[in-house]
Prior knowledge:
alpha/beta; Rossmann fold; 4 helices
Amino acid sequence: MTVKSVIMDEKGIERSVVRLSHEIIERNKGVVNLAIVGVKTRGEYLARRIAHKIKKLEEANIPCGFIDITLYRDDLQTRRLQHPELKGTEIPFDITDKYVILVDDVLYTGRTTRAALDELMDLGRPASIQLAVLIDRGHRELPIRADYVGKNVPTSVGEEVKVLLKEVDDKDEVLLIDTDE
C-alpha cells in the first residue's frame, strides 16, 4: 500500500469540523433537541469534536454518544467472524424525538451507515437522523447520502481513504492510499 496523497492535514480537518458544526446549527435552526452520535471508532472522535465546537458556538451542551455497529454488519457471516471484537455502544440519553446527527469518518458503500441506522432504530425513535461525514468517497452500493460532507474525494475502487485522528493515531491527517499494489 502506497500513500498517493495527503487529502487533508490537521488544519484541513479542523476547518471541516468547524464548517460541519456551523452547517448543522444552521440547518437545524439552532441546537434544540439535537443529539450527536458517532460511529466507532473515528466517527466517535469526530462526533466529540463537533459537539465541542457546537457547545462553544451556541453555549449549549449537546448530548453526545457513540455506537458500535459490529453486530449490525451485513457481512458478519461472509467474513466468518466467530468472535467479533465489540467496542461497545454508549448513548447515555434517550434518542426518541431527538434530531440525531450520525457522524462517521468516511462514507463509501453506505453499508456502515445502514448498520448504524438499524442500531439507532433499535435504541429509540428519533425525530430525524442526519448524516455527517468527514470524507465522501463515492461508490455507493445503497441509496444513502450524507447531509453534511467535509470533503468529497472521488476515488477508484483500487484506492482507500485512511483517516488518522490524534485521539487514536497521534496525528490528524487524511490519506489517499493505493491498494492495487
